[in-house]
Design brief:
The chain is mostly beta strands and 117 residues long. The protein has no helices and 11 strands. Strands 2, 4, 5, 6, 9, 10 and 11 form a 7-stranded mixed β-sheet that branches. A 4-stranded antiparallel β-sheet has the order 1-3-8-7, with no helix packed on it. Strand 7 and strand 8 form a beta hairpin. The mean pLDDT is 96.
């Protein structure tokens, strides 16, 4: 059975940092591109970042502006998103997703990130 389980979300003040984790199981993690997508209240999904299968290339949404870093550990089947300089606009549920051949195959249940003073 496939599982993607996000963790690490929480409440943080503006300017703060969080590290999100996504634990994968039940599929060949190293064969999939991995992506973070977020959804803010009342808004549609927004792509955050993608990392290639081997972790050699990373891509970010324009709004990231150098504040986030995506990484993965294929030996541990883990995906990460290190987030710095968080702002209220970053408040959202953050989801990890596995993609292969350009299609999302698996999604996690999400972790809430709330940025507020």
């Amino acid at each position: 059975e496939v599982h993607l389980v996000e963790s690490g979300g929480g409440l943080v003040q503006p300017g703060g940092s969080l590290r999100l984790s996504c634990a994968a199981s039940g599929f060949a993690f190293g064969s999939y591109e991995m992506t973070w997508v977020r959804q803010a209240p009342g808004k549609g999904p927004e792509w955050v970042s993608t990392i290639t299968k081997d972790g050699d290339r990373t891509y970010y949404g324009n709004f990231v502006k150098g504040r986030f870093t995506i990484s993965r550990d294929n030996a541990q089947n883990m995906l990460y998103l290190q987030m710095h300089s968080l702002q209220p606009d970053d408040t959202a549920v953050y989801y990890c997703a596995a993609a292969i051949l350009g299609s999302y195959a698996y999604w996690g249940q999400g972790t809430q990130v709330t940025v507020t003073s």
